[in-house]
Amino acid sequence: GDVNGSIAGQLSRYNGFTYGIIKSTDGGNTWSLTGLSSDPAENDLIGRLWVDPANPNIVVAASYGGIYRTTNGGTSWTRTASGIFREVIQNPVSTVTLYAATYAMNGGASIHRSTDAGVTWSMMYTIPEANRIRLAVTKANQNVVVALASNFQTQGFEGLYKSTDAGTSFSELRTSLNLLGWSASGNDRGGQGFYDLACEVSPTNANHIYVGGVNIWRTTTNGSTWELSAHWTGDRGAPYVHADQHFFKFHPSRTHLFATHDGGIARSTDGGVTWRDVSRGMAIQQYYGLAVSNSNPALTIAGAQDNGTALSKNSGASFVHTLDGDGMLGGIDAVNPSIMYGSQYYGNFWRTSNGGSSWSFISSENLRAESGSWVAPIAVDPRLSNTVYVGYRQIWKSTTAGATWDRISNIPTGSSMRVIAVAPSNPNYIYVAYNTTLHFTSNGGQSWQQQPGITGFIMGVD
Prior knowledge:
Layout: E1 6-9, E2 21-24, E3 32-33, E4 46-51, E5 59-63, E6 66-70, E7 78-81, E8 85-90, E9 98-102, E10 109-114, E11 122-127, E12 130-137, E13 145-151, E14 157-163, E15 171-172, E16 198-201, E17 209-212, E18 216-219, E19 227-230, E20 245-250, E21 257-261, E22 264-268, E23 276-277, E24 287-292, E25 300-304, E26 308-312, E27 320-323, E28 331-332, E29 340-344, E30 348-352, E31 360-361, H1 365-368, E32 378-380, E33 388-391, E34 395-398, E35 406-407, E36 419-422, E37 430-433, E38 438-441, E39 449-450
Antiparallel strand pairs: 1-2, 2-3, 4-5, 5-6, 6-7, 8-9, 9-10, 10-11, 12-13, 13-14, 14-15, 16-17, 17-18, 18-19, 20-21, 21-22, 22-23, 24-25, 25-26, 26-27, 28-29, 29-30, 30-31, 32-33, 33-34, 34-35, 36-37, 37-38, 38-39
């Protein structure tokens, strides 16, 4: 294939915004839309792509709108299968034999096979309780296909299935362990199969299988026994690897196994016995927001998806980890920079009073009963110490650095708040935004008005 040619599908985690498939012909320096593009509102997500190794103009896309195929490098596409697909892979030897898997929210995900490079498809196997399937093949045996499935109700482990006849039939490799959960012993229930699901088979031994959910598990006995290969906290002496596994791949050398997860990339050179993080130098963290201290401009706090909250005391020259979990928005007290605020998903707010050495949870039951947005807003008063605002369905104010809270709005709404802004010139002017409406108060929350003339989705107020 062309070493400068790249093609990528855009798949969103939460909001479904996608523009379809984009293409680069200069090694990723520039990108352009292909003929398979869509409006974000259409929610036609791309799950995975296959590029013919003998002819890079032939591409097959697994998408929420079906399976699409192009023979002219993406200029035009033909839908060759209907349904919601998130997976397509190639037989390790035959470039005309492809396998695909559907996504089924209420169960019944299925495995499909094509023997003509994606022109036609046949449904081969259905897993009644599965919502999602991840497929894997191996050069050790071209007839082996492994399918990892998550349960549509719990999102935990539904089953691992293996075919030894190139996908014609499958049998279950039974285990009582929940290979997709959080527990190091595999005895919990549930998981995040809709989000994190990875599977790979050793290229030298078809009985060596790797499964990823929150953690990494491996079997060297074709599923008869399982070993915890890595754990998201390093529990029970297992190697630590960041949580939420998305993709496993052996290097062509057949000795190095790579795992991609929410923290970057890990590598094992001994079949999953030990792991090493190899993400250094990759600028890939997703930051939701940052705050800079008014009284100490060198002090910055920032929240990163899946990678916690980080703190810099030298104007961003370096950062140190200060709060675990999914990092969202934060703030720094206007007068005392030792008082800072951090947050996690859906409005779980925290406070430190000692510059980040320790943290206290400050989201009371009354606040959390309203339910917050995935990234719930927070704003510190630009003048007064210990004064902070957070948004759920309504806006709440604390003058005790989060020890106690008072609700200062009663805005009719059916959604959670997304933005809070306090005017630096006059803190009695406070603005709050929902999806498409903007409201403000000029008297510190005693009364509220809706700002007319606002159209579109509100992302921020400044």
